[in-house]
Write a structure and sequence with these properties.
disordered N terminus; membrane; transmembrane
């Protein structure tokens, strides 16, 4: 029997748990809105760590490990909200009119718990014994170290909190200006190209600029290439092939993009994801084998397990995994109860639970490895979701093929989406667990305490997702959904959920436009080759992530164009300060301002949804005015540029003071 060393610093505390839960609730609400609007989410570990350090500095006995537990709990918000890439699909296909709390909470919570359990055995192989870079995990550890190591670190922690507050306040006010109709919500121009048409649009969104800064210049350039392919090549060509002179340039271009180009983008994302994931099979299997071998040796030799190497006991991991299958099966049986699939409930539940076990393990391992390779924000969750829905649709479609009809097909699509929600929760929390454990390794944390912390975050985040989702469903609704009784005339795009539900319907009903998907897949494979050549020629200094290109083809330009602008301005800012002695501090403060941009705008819009529901008015903040569209666009550009430029200068000036 291995000996366990118990002594260690203060880590899990009541105050830390409460603070972590509060941050999780706030950030999850922000993430749900952002994901529904643009199909992207951001990592919450760094802003959570900064907020924690600033607030817990009031206690003399606060430790770096305690702050680490707070960010571990809160990090669940940045990942668990990704389930909204699938869940709104049940509203879009008309299966749900409203978001039920318990089924949604259950799918998120069960998937999240399994995500933690599935990745516990991978920690040694993929974290402590691995040379994977874990960019976000290392960055969070550096922030914690700097913020708790010295007087100047404490000063930077307080400055970081101010950066989050300033970013949040300015982005909320900017979004309020758009809501009040003082400025344009989107800056766009469309024009004819002979018999065809094209153009470009960009949402007036500081949150998207912030997302671009956080993603970095590599992803930004990939998205720029995707924009050029979509709006500079595909839209002009396809509109020229099918001229519609009676339509305006905007209607013609947007029609071709929505009906054809985004399907090509979906094919490119799918092919790039499959190739990316296929290359991970060997390292993931090797990591699992190494983890099991390490555990076996420790048990046989009775070796002493240091505190910093203690995971949840493998017996507990196995027991919790088995027990989680009971509520999972009950949830799925309840989902099928009383519907056209009632007679198939038993085989469908067996297939669903089996799929969660098999696909969940695979998805958690792959996402965990990708978190180590490129960070959890850049991890190809879209690709995992696409593969998962395809597998789920084929599996449940096979069970119900002998009684297939319109109603049965509809019910099978809904069931496939529900099963995929659970698997995606497994994947994203597995991704997050390993990233957090890397941070913990660098700051001397106890792994099992972090794993418990993440389970707490999963519970808190799972409670928020259905509440915010239903609020936004009642206020705005979603593009493509029946939206019966919705108050606002501005539905949220929910682009990822649109893609996932389209694929599910296409596979089960056999009406997917496979020709366009095939063109997209060919483009995706070409992008994989181009990326390989660039990496090889530059010795891995440069790359062109194929998933980033595919996403920019698939997502509306209103979403991707501001992300590209944010990536470029962030790169220019970091280039401008990198040679200064205070350059690294300025970069960290810049990241926190951009995180604040995302949080502030997203929370404002969640609050606006509440106001819409409370008043029954679609645009409760709108102020009548006589300004033209061009004037409103100019105001948006000038005001946005002034805010971003001013806060970058504020970051540089204050970083210099802190470092002095």
């Amino acid at each position: 029997m291995a000996n366990v060393v118990q002594a260690g610093p203060k880590e899990i505390t009541i105050r830390g748990i409460i603070l972590g839960i509060v941050i999780t609730l706030v950030f999850t609400a922000a993430q749900v809105y952002l994901g529904l609007k643009v199909g992207l989410t951001f990592a919450t570990s760094i802003p959570a760590a900064v907020i924690s350090m600033a607030l817990l500095s009031a206690f003399k006995d606060a430790t770096i490990q305690e702050n680490n537990i707070v960010q571990t709990i809160a990090s669940a918000a940045g990942t668990l909200a990704s389930v909204i890439f699938v869940l709104p699909g049940l509203l879009m296909i008309g299966w749900w009119a409203h978001v039920p709390f318990w089924p949604t909470f259950g799918a998120c919570a069960i998937g999240g718990v399994l995500g933690v359990m599935y990745t516990v055995p991978l920690r040694r192989a993929l974290v402590s014994q691995s040379d994977l870079p874990y960019p976000e995990g290392v960055a969070a550890a550096e922030v914690l170290k700097v913020g708790t190591s010295s007087r100047s670190g404490a000063a930077e922690g307080k400055l970081g909190l101010m950066a989050v507050i300033w970013g949040s306040a300015t982005s909320a006010l900017f979004a309020a200006a758009a809501g009040a109709k003082i400025m344009a919500a989107e800056v766009a121009v469309y024009f004819k190209t002979g018999s065809g048409a094209t153009g470009i649009g960009a949402a007036s969104s500081l949150a998207l600029l912030g997302a671009g800064h956080l993603m970095g210049i590599t992803v930004g350039i990939a998205m720029l290439v995707g924009l050029i392919i979509a709006w500079g090549v595909l839209v002009p060509v396809l509109t020229s092939i099918d001229p519609m002179p009676a339509l305006s340039a905007a209607d013609h271009a947007l029609g071709a993009w929505s009906k054809q180009v985004r399907i090509i983008g979906a094919g490119a994302i799918g092919a790039a994801a499959i190739v990316t994931l296929a290359g991970l099979g060997k390292p993931v299997l090797g990591g699992l084998k190494s983890a099991l071998e390490t555990a076996r040796k420790a048990k046989m030799t009775g070796a002493e397990i240091p505190r910093a190497d203690q995971d949840l006991p493998i017996f507990v991991v196995g027991l919790v995994t088995l027990l989680a299958m009971v509520p999972a099966g009950w949830l799925m049986a309840s989902f099928l109860q009383g519907g056209v699939l009632s007679s198939l409930a038993l085989p469908l539940v067996i297939v669903g639970v089996g799929y969660i076990v098999v696909a969940g393990v695979f998805a958690a391992a792959v996402c965990g490895y990708m978190a180590g390779l490129i960070g959890s924000s850049n991890s190809p969750v879209s690709g995992i979701a696409i593969l998962t829905i395809l597998g789920a649709s084929l599996s449940v479609g096979f069970v119900g093929k002998h009684m297939m009809g319109p109603e049965v097909a509809h019910a099978l699509v809904a069931y496939a989406l529900f099963v995929t929600t659970v698997v995606l929760a497994v994947a994203v929390i597995g991704n997050d667990n390993l990233q957090d454990l890397k941070t913990g390794q660098l700051v001397g944390a106890t792994p099992w305490k972090q794993q418990v912390g993440l389970l707490i975050g999963v519970g808190a985040g799972s409670a928020v997702v259905p509440l915010v989702l239903e609020l936004l469903n009642r206020a705005n609704g979603f593009a493509g959904a029946p939206n019966i009784g919705v108050i606002s005339a501005s539905p949220l795009a929910a682009p990822q959920a649109t893609l996932i539900s389209t694929l599910a319907k296409g596979v089960i009903s056999h009406n997917l436009d496979w020709k366009l998907v095939g063109y997209g897949a060919a483009l995706g494979l070409l992008l994989v080759i181009v990326d390989f050549v660039i990496r090889k020629a530059s010795k891995d200094r440069y790359s062109l992530p194929p998933l980033g290109v595919g996403l920019a083809i698939y997502l509306p330009s209103a979403v991707t164009a501001p992300v590209v602008v944010g990536a470029v301005t962030g790169w220019l800012f970091e280039r401008a300060v990198e040679n200064a002695t205070w350059g690294e501090t300025a970069k960290r403060i810049g990241v926190l301002i951009m995180s604040g941009f995302i949080v502030g705008e997203s929370l404002f819009n969640v609050g606006l949804a509440g106001l819409i529901v409370a008043t029954g008015v679609g645009e409760p903040l709108a102020i009548p005015n006589s300004m033209g569209e061009g004037t409103q666009m100019l105001i948006a550009l000038v005001l946005g540029g002034a805010i971003v430029g001013g806060l970058y200068r504020w970051a540089a000036r204050n970083a210099e003071k802190v470092a002095a």
